[in-house]
Every structure is written in C-alpha cells, then in structure tokens.
Amino acid sequence: MAAGAKRLARLGTDAHIRSQPGNRGMTTLELAVGVLTVSILAAILAWGVSLMVVYNHCSDTAAAVARYMAIGDTSKAKQARQNAPTGATISVIERSTTVEVVVSADERFGLIGPIHLVSSFTQLKEPK
Q: What gap in Å lies between CA 57 and CA 51, rounded to an integer?
C-alpha cells in the first residue's frame, strides 16, 4: 500500500474531502446556519408560549369579571378589570339572566402581528 493510501485508511474515508481546498470553512458555515436556525425557532417558540400566557390571562380576567358582575359586586369586578393584560379591551354585555364578558388583546412579535386574542365568559346572574 502506498503511503497516501495508508494515511487515508488511517484517517477515514472523508479525510480526502476535508483536505480539498474548496471545502475550507464549510463546517463553520454549516454551524453558523444551524445556530441561526435554532435561535429563530427558539424565539418563535417563546413567542408562542407568551401568546398562550396572554390568552390565559384574558380568560381568567373574563371569568372573574363575569362572576363578580353576576353576583352584583361591582367593586370587585372593577378590581378584576385592572388585572387584564396591558392594552386589553373589556366589554360587558348584561342580559336579563346572564352576564357575558369579552376580553381582547393584540400581541405583536416585531413586524409579525398583531395577533388578536379574544376570550369570553358567560355567567348566569344570581337570583336576588
């Protein structure tokens, strides 16, 4: 066996590919693209989780306001309104036997959005 063949056998089959001048820096480029892709995916995943948290916050606020309005406790309903997400709008629809509360919020992720989140809750009024 020639010295070059022994060297290739010892280093593995892709040693000759790595030693070619046109492939220098390919690993660095692949690593950079991979890290960038993972970073973007992690940011989108974190934004998705934050959307779920804001939606849950809207749902909790709608339920609390509707319950307090249904029993006629307007002071606690006002306190519950203050717990809404920043920039959220709250609308209360009172009917003869029910109270419906709709909480909506717009969320953005840089140039993406707004994503319109809406949660509603309907509560039967307590008899007087």
A: 10
Cα separation, 41 vs 75, in Å, equals 44
- Residue boundaries of the structural domains of the chain: 26-124
Contacts 24+ apart (CB under 8 A), 93-102: 94/69, 97/124, 97/125, 98/70, 98/122, 98/123, 98/124, 98/125, 99/66, 99/69, 99/70, 99/123, 99/125, 100/66, 101/61, 101/62, 101/63, 101/65, 101/66, 101/69, 102/62
Segment holding 112, helix H or strand E = strand 112-124
Question: What does pTM read for this prediction?
Answer: 0.72
Retrieve residue 78's tokens: 């006002």
Residues 58-91: pLDDT tens digits?
A: 999 999 999 999 999 999 999 999 989 999 999 9
Phi and psi of 23, rounded to 5°?
Answer: -100, 5
